[in-house]
């Protein structure tokens, strides 16, 4: 039986910081980037040795700006990487040079250990082993161990022993299980809090299975005792998911066909791969976050009042489309639309900061047609600060920036034009209405606006008040009615694209 760890998968909230740590500091190779097999809007990166060998792989799902999880029992809490024993001092120096907080060296099970955290707070241990020393600098060659926190450690140990791991030693609340290549450390976490999924936590650990026949045998054996066993084709390996008695998610993954099944060995990780069951590849690629490898040119993201995402096209034309989503959306929702109407534009998507029953909005509402006036004003003020910072940070030209808003985002943009005239100079407002109770007298001369109202939109009856105010304020208004409801449609794309081309 093949035994050992195949890979570990965790969740990050900042893909660029993640790449900088795992490729830049740790030195692993990026061997695969793919859209998520379950949720294509999740970027999934695999790091490992240059060949993408099982046992070296650490992968991350990107939840950009996502809620943080909590480490507790029923989770992998630590990832250990194997380094030559004599290189502990070099890694300690490297960590200090990178200004990383590091603990140690200490000793665990007789091995020297350095403890640090990745940008999401995941504990990463560098463990000195008797592996060959290939020189310095050199990335860790493989995963040494993972630490599983269990409320029922004896049951967890018994369950994992069927996959080629055997109980070896105990130390300080940890029970060590060893395979032919690596280690599982099981910590007695009884009485501790349960883990909560989210960013900064490990989603699962995958254990190695030789091939599909062995995996099918395990599926048959496990299904009789665990109704939660599920089979998946992950293209690069076949796998089963199962919960061990302590609730940690365990994946059983075949060694093959491997990461080179759709890329040459010399080009692993260079191209974004989309799983074959997703066919909306153009829009999908626009929604996924961009990143730069260490040493590549990049735009440093700034800490500004709104959670945001910047996407640059392959051939930027110097224009920008600033995207404001509708109720329940996020900073990437309108990126496909923005890309279609202005393929050469840099896209800047914002996420609303007000929430309603857990979903994002740009301001609170009191009812379906009345709105929190103070919240609108305070958020508009925050946007003014954001936009000033974004122009400087990302070298954006306000005269070549178009604000594209849908529904709640369109209403927010209109309110900004009223409260901060001149801040927005071009706007496409899809399904808008006036949300300010008192529309001020302002001068919008030189401001160009396209409004798109749905003929069957139940909110369409409120659009004329906004259109009249825009005209009275001196805006260059093109007010169009499309055959549709409140939803976005093909007519919106066509009219917006034509309007953008007219300048």
Automatic annotation (TrEMBL):
Residues 4-129, 142-255 form the VOC domain. PROSITE patterns: VOC. Signal peptide: none annotated. Coiled coil: none annotated. It comes from the Bacteria. Pfam families: Glyoxalase. This is VOC family protein. It comes from Paracoccus fistulariae.
């Amino acid at each position: 039986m093949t035994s050992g760890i195949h890979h570990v998968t965790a969740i990050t909230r900042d893909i660029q910081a993640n790449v900088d740590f795992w490729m830049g500091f740790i030195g692993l190779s990026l061997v695969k980037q793919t859209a998520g097999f379950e949720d294509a809007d999740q970027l999934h990166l695999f790091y490992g040795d240059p060949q993408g060998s099982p046992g070296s792989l650490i992968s991350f799902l990107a939840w950009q700006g996502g809620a943080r999880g909590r480490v507790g029992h029923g989770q992998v809490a630590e990832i250990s990487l194997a380094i030559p024993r004599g290189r502990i001092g070099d890694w300690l120096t490297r960590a200090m040079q990178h200004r990383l907080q590091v603990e140690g060296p200490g000793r665990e099970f007789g091995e020297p250990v350095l403890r640090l955290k990745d940008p999401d707070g995941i504990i990463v241990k560098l463990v000195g082993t008797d592996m060959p020393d290939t020189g310095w600098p050199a990335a860790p060659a493989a995963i040494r161990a993972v630490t599983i926190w269990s409320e029922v450690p004896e049951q967890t140990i018994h369950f994992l022993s069927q996959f080629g791991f055997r109980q070896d030693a105990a130390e300080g609340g940890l029970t060590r299980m060893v395979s032919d290549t690596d280690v599982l450390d099981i910590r007695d976490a009884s009485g501790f809090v349960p883990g909560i999924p989210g960013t900064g936590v490990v989603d699962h650990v995958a254990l190695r299975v030789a091939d599909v026949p062995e995996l099918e045998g395990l599926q048959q054996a496990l299904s009789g005792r665990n109704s939660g066993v599920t089979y998946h084709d992950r293209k690069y390996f076949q796998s089963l998911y199962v919960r061990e008695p302590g609730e940690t998610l365990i994946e059983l993954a075949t060694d093959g066909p491997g990461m080179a099944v759709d890329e040459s060995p010399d080009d692993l990780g260079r191209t974004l791969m989309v799983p074959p069951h997703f066919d909306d590849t153009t829009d999908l690629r626009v929604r996924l976050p961009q990143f730069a490898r260490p040493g590549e040119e990049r735009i440093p993201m700034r800490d500004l009042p709104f959670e945001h995402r910047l996407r640059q096209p392959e051939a930027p034309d110097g224009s920008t489309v600033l995207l404001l989503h509708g109720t329940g959306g996020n900073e990437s929702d309108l990126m496909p639309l923005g890309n279609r109407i202005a393929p050469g534009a840099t896209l800047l998507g914002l996420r609303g900061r007000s929430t309603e029953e857990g979903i994002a909005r740009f301001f609170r509402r009191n009812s379906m047609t009345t709105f929190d006036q103070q919240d609108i004003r305070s958020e508009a003020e925050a946007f003014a600060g954001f936009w000033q910072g974004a122009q400087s940070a990302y070298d954006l030209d306000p005269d070549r920036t178009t604000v594209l808003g849908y529904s709640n985002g369109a209403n927010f943009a209109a309110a900004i034009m009223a409260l901060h005239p001149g801040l927005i100079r071009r706007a496409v407002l899809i399904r808008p209405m006036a949300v300010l109770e008192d529309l001020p007298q302002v001068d919008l001369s030189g401001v160009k606006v396209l409004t798109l109202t749905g003929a069957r939109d139940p909110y369409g009856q409120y659009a004329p008040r906004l259109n009249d105010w825009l005209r009275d304020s001196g805006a260059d208004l093109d007010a169009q009615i499309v055959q549709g409801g409140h939803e976005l449609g093909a007519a919106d794309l066509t009219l917006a694209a034509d309007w953008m081309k007219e300048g």
